[in-house]
Specification:
The protein is mostly helical and 120 residues long. Helices cover 53% and strands 7% of the residues. The radius of gyration is 17 Å and the shape is elongated.
């Protein structure tokens, strides 16, 4: 049955796939541009996947501290970069597999959180 499903997916209508690819591209742009505007964050544009991997070292925090405090203080969940290797200790991983409105809210919360770090 899995092979039949794969065949149907490849031979069937491709419009839903095209729409999904366009939606994820829009979400990626929203998140990359939003994070790039926040002082202290550097966010390269990923070529694939559905997450970004910004460097947060400009905030004065490492990825683990940033992730923990962001969750506790702003209610936004990201993974510390060290989950992907010690070399990524100044990074966090943020998925953009969410609605654009949820991503916009997350970006607002992240911006306020980083702004408060600068005021502290």
């Amino acid at each position: 049955f899995i092979q039949w499903a794969a065949t149907a997916a490849l031979r069937g209508p491709q419009e839903p796939v095209t729409a999904m690819v366009a939606e994820f591209a829009a979400r990626r742009e929203l998140v990359v541009e939003g994070l790039t505007r926040i002082p202290g964050l550097r966010c390269p544009r990923p070529a694939g996947a559905f997450y970004v991997f910004p460097d947060v070292s400009g905030t004065g925090l490492d990825g683990a501290s940033f992730a923990e405090r962001l969750l506790d203080e702003a209610g936004v969940c990201v993974l510390p970069g060290t989950a992907f290797g010690e070399r990524a200790r100044t990074h966090v991983r943020l998925s953009y597999a969410a609605s654009q409105s949820d991503l916009e809210e997350a970006l607002r919360r992240i911006a306020r959180f980083v702004d408060r770090l600068g005021a502290a």
